[in-house]
Amino acid sequence: MNTGIQIRAANPKDAATIALHRYPGEKGEHLAVYAAWLPGVMSRGSYVGWLAKEGHRVIGGAGLLLLDWQPSRTEASPIRGRVVNVFVEPEFRRQGVARRLLLGVLDEARRLGVPGVGLSTSAEGRPLYASLGFGASVDEMYLEMKRQPGIGSGPSGN
To answer: pTM of the predicted model, to two decimals?
Structure first.
């Protein structure tokens, strides 16, 4: 583990960096839209994040998105957490940086009383998430809401 790496809380001024973590190596409108969206959700407390730094260079980050959610039969809390924007520069991977960032995310979720957190993962990230207690979901499905003929045209079918 690289002990010269420091972890600090992210703030709205870090929005452009966090957007780059969300979309590494990409350019385009979605990057600017995400960077413009972040300060508002950070100011409202709906997004909290951490950045890893070596010296003055940001080398990684991770965030927690807090979502309003309906209470259910199994959970009365109206909040759910979503781990997002987990990223570590390639030359710093496999040194415990992502684990430290994620432990910060999970500690904050516990502090806030979030009953559970979800995430999307890559094959590369699965072993780390599993080692922290995450399990795969077998009951989640997803529909991308692109307009399809005969689907989503409203109750009248028009």
So the answer is: 0.82
